[in-house]
Structure formats: C-alpha cells, structure tokens
Write a structure and sequence with these properties.
Blueprint lengths: L1 E6 L10 H14 L3 E7 L2 H4 L11 E5 L2 H12 L4 E5 L5 H10 L4 E6 L2 H9 L17 E4 L6 H9 L4 E3 L20 E6 L7 H14 L5 E4 L13 E4 L4 H9 L1 E6 L3 H6 L5 H8 L4 E3 L16 E2 L3 H8 L3 H18 L2 H18 L9
Parallel strand pairs: 1-2, 1-4, 2-3, 4-5, 5-6, 6-7, 8-9, 8-11, 9-10, 11-12, 12-13
C-alpha cells in the first residue's frame, strides 16, 4: 500500500507522544513493503528539538505553510491507497478537504488523543483538526483509546461510521534492557511531558513519597516543567530525553512511575505508549489505576497499581527478586502483544477490512 499521513510530528519527540509512535509504525510498515509519506508542518519548537532528520525508506515532507505544499500533497494523493489525518495536525481542516476530495481508496482519521478530543468537544470547544462535519466522511476512524464507550462517543458526537481502537505500542529495537547509567540512577523515575491535569496524581504518587523518603533519589525526565513545580532536594530533573536515551533512563531505576492524564484515566482503556516503552526496557512498573488497565498488564503480577502515596512507599519495600520477576513478565507481555510490528500488522488488517467493506461501511464494535 501507498500510505500518506498528515500528522503533528514524526521528526521531533520533544513535548509530544506522537513522534515515537509514528516512527515505530512507519519503520515496520516500510519493512513490510508499504510506501510511506509523512507531511509535517515545520514549526520552530519542533525544528529546534528535531531528533530525526529523515524517514528511512520513506518520505518526510516538512513544509512551512499549507499553501507551500498543497499542490504537492494533491499530486501524491492521486495514487495513494490510504490517506491518514491525525489529531493535532496543525492543518487539519485543509488536509481534510484535500483527502476527502481525492481519489484515494481509503480515507482514515487516527485520533492519538481520543480522551482529550472528546473532553474538548463536551466543553463546546472547536477543534483545529476536525471540521464542522465531524468524521462522517471518513471511511475509518482509528482511536488510541478503546473500551465500551468508544463507538457511541465517536458515532454520536462526530458521526463516525467505522471505528476501531489502535493502541499505543513500543519499538523493541529502541526500547530494550541496557546497562544502568549513574546519571539516571533513581529509586523511582518518571518520564513524561508536564501536564497540569497529571499534576495532582504526580504530586501524590511521586512528590509526596520523595519528601517522605529523603534517603532515596528520585528522577523526572521531560519537557515544559514550570519553575514553580514542587521540587525537593532529592528530586532530580532531566529537561528532555530523546528516544535513544529512554532505555538507559528506565534501566537505571529500581521502579518507574506511569501517570495518566485526567481525561485518559476517566475514559479508561487508554494505555500510554510510555507504559509499553518502560516495560520493554525491563523496569518494574508502578502506575495510577484506571478502568481497563488489567487488560494490558496483570496487577501484582506484571504491574503495581497505586492510588495513594502510601502505595508508592509500600512498593519500595518489595523484594528485588519479586520486582525483577514482575518486570520480566511485563516485558514479555509487551513483546507478545504491544510491539510496533504487531500494531503495524493490525493497522493493515483494519485497512484491508475497511476496503473490503466499502461502500457499505458500518460501525464496528471496538
């Protein structure tokens, strides 16, 4: 297949979760013989933090304005098998018009931010990446989130016809066990871009335990943290980590914490890609809890769930052997079910089913 993507970014992992996911998908789709073209607006904050210059085996097209690239995009779509528009594409409305007016066989919207999208719609906000007709004209809608509410939410709010979850994933070539590094040593680490709606949980599960255990070293990695973040003397900070450094970051921790954004936790069935990345690196997982998490990791066998600071402190008391066995089971689960190659195969399977079902495309239960 020739697949054309209009997305947020693949070239920079700074401050977003899209790039790492697209890199794993595109790499495995290209390996499988598919042709990939990714259109990305060349904005300063990604250009200044770019950690991928080209899409190996595919085509990365960086553009300054939609007017600069519209004709080229139209030409590339003429023989495309599938065109994908993603959430937070900065030229979402223009790209939607171009895709829907094209002769491309399959027209897809992929929401990598499902709970945030739906939360904003409930609040009456306009979305720069979804036009006034919603998603009714797309052949297929893919969602980073699953669960029992998915179909009704997209059908009722956005008119989507065919809906399926396509969860996060991890590239085990990038995220894998490596030797610990002293600069990343920590009893507990947390890797994630700052988000105000994660702050309460982060303070409860990370900051409060750090203040209660001044004898231990805690480490945060990520971008956009404000100056008034409640640091303590035993919380250390790494401003931004490119994906190539993630493995060493995770491997140097006794435990790593996952904290889910509020809208994601409320909707459920929305595992962060970071959760799969940490598991693939072989670090024991500590996470906040939400509906559906047990579908991805078995509590107390593959992951420790926490809702209070006392739960984090109790996790420190677990035996090293027990934590190592838990981490090994979680890693194997991810390699078996949540690798980028598995997800790329799922995507192509969903595309083929949608093409066979056209033009009488109907909503499928997630």
């Amino acid at each position: 297949m020739k697949i054309v993507i209009f997305g947020l970014t693949i070239s920079s992992s700074w401050g977003n979760g899209h790039a790492t996911l697209w890199r794993g998908l595109c790499k495995n789709l290209i390996r499988a013989g598919h042709s990939m073209v990714f259109f990305e607006r060349d904005v300063p904050y990604y250009a200044d933090n770019r950690d991928m210059a080209e899409l190996a085996g595919g085509h990365l097209i960086l553009y300054r304005s939609w007017q600069d690239v519209a004709r080229q995009a139209e030409a590339i779509l003429t023989d495309a098998d599938a065109a994908i528009l993603t959430s937070y594409c900065p030229d979402g409305h223009d790209a939607t018009t171009l895709i829907l007016d094209s002769r491309c066989e399959l027209k897809v919207f992929y929401d990598l931010d499902t709970p945030v999208t739906l939360d904003r719609l409930r609040s009456g906000e306009a979305l720069s990446y979804i036009g006034p007709r919603g998603l009714a004209d797309f052949d297929l809608v893919l969602s980073f989130t699953g669960g029992p509410r998915l179909v009704d939410e997209y059908r009722n709010r956005l008119g989507a016809r065919a809906i399926a979850p396509l969860y996060g994933h991890v590239d085990p070539d990038v995220h894998r066990p490596v030797a610990p590094q002293p600069q990343y040593r920590a009893a507990l680490s947390y890797l994630g871009t700052y988000s105000a709606d994660r702050q309460a949980a982060l303070q409860e599960l990370f900051v409060a335990p750090a203040r209660g255990r001044r004898d231990l070293r805690f480490l945060i990695g990520g971008a956009q943290y404000p100056q008034d973040f409640p640091w303590s003397s035993n919380i250390y900070f790494v401003r931004h980590l490119p994906p190539a450094e993630h493995a060493a970051f995770f491997a140097s921790s006794r435990l790593t914490l996952n904290v889910t954004r509020r809208a994601m936790a409320e909707m459920g069935w929305c595992p962060s890609g970071r959760l799969f990345e940490a598991a693939a690196c072989g670090v024991p997982l500590l996470s906040d809890t939400w509906d559906g998490i047990a579908d991805f990791f078995a509590p107390d066998e593959e992951i420790i769930l926490a809702s209070r600071s006392e739960d984090t402190l109790a996790a420190f008391a677990r035996d090293d052997g027990e934590l190592a066995r838990m981490a090994a089971r979680a890693r194997q689960r991810v390699l078996d079910e949540h690798g980028s190659q598995t997800r790329a195969n799922e995507m192509i399977g969903l595309f083929e089913r949608a093409i066979r079902a056209a033009p009488s495309l109907t909503t499928q239960e997630a």
